[in-house]
Design a protein that fits this description.
270 residues; mainly alpha; Helix Hairpins; 0% strand
């Protein structure tokens, strides 16, 4: 047995012991798919955070945490008689081989566009097969877009899926016009003061902005994360400047806030 398979086997044994009805950990024994799912999502974000920080040591650790989540879910499924970790690994192995005929068989593609089209055909067949297994008569090109995705990410994926069957703006010009239209509808709803209508129009505006990003090849989720980080850094700088100048934040005038923001922005650029 190789060192790699030995390490994985040890991890699987640890998981089995943690879930042991008599000798296991009380907390681990009590968990379900639903209670573990939020941790799985959190660990995926921590992997992304380590990558953003270019921290190799943290990345190694966070990948381990994420792997443990897969092992945890697989163990709970095994206890129910559904499948085990080997079945999970075999399933993704077979899917990757099936979706890459140009690598694992004699298929050849003339261009990356042809390869992408083939990939989408495979995924469409798999969606149809999954819908048939579920007995879902209303299979849709949007059927397997996870509802648990962050809203911006899901909006982009819904837009891409719809675009693949032709439901899309021809170019970003049409999306820009739609952004202006949606902003006007937000303003109209605001005049009426109907909170539900305002929320709906804000949602439409955000969805359209996400699709503008898609047309401009910008990941809206990543762009907003970057904007969040930039805002946080500048606000922390304003706090420092206010402290240096003996100013209390809750006593600042709008003009003082503007001055601090301008100074913090200049400092960040410098």
């Amino acid at each position: 047995m190789s060192e790699r398979s030995t390490s994985l086997e040890k991890l699987l044994q640890v998981m089995q012991r943690l879930r042991d009805p008599e000798r296991g950990c009380p907390w681990d024994r009590e968990q379900t798919f639903a209670t573990i799912a939020p941790y799985t999502i959190e660990e995926a974000y921590e992997v992304a955070d380590a990558i953003a920080r270019n921290d190799a040591a943290d990345l190694r650790s966070e990948l381990g945490d994420l792997l443990f989540q897969v092992v945890f879910h697989a163990r709970m499924a095994q206890e129910r008689g559904w499948f085990d970790f080997d079945a999970v690994a075999a399933g993704i192995h077979d899917k990757l081989v099936r979706r890459h005929p140009h690598v694992f068989s004699d298929a050849a593609f003339a261009s990356s566009q042809e390869q992408t089209a083939n990939w989408e055909e495979h995924k469409a067949r798999e969606r149809a097969e999954a819908a048939a297994r579920r007995g879902d008569p209303s299979a849709s090109v949007l059927s397997d877009v996870p509802k648990a995705l962050p809203a911006l990410m899901r909006a982009a994926k819904l837009g891409r899926r719809a675009a693949r069957v032709g439901f899309d703006w021809p170019d970003e010009t049409g999306v820009r016009a739609k952004v202006v239209e949606e902003l006007a509808e937000v303003e109209a709803a605001s005049v009426c003061g109907n909170k539900a209508a305002i929320a709906e129009e804000i949602g439409d505006l955000l969805f359209t902005v996400v699709n503008l990003g898609r047309h401009l090849d910008v990941d809206a989720e990543a762009a907003l994360r970057a904007a969040n980080s930039k805002f946080e850094a500048r606000f922390r700088r304003m706090e420092s400047l206010a402290k240096e100048r003996g100013l209390e934040l809750d006593a600042l005038t709008p003009q003082q806030w503007d001055g601090l923001w301008t100074d913090a922005k200049a400092a960040s650029k410098a």
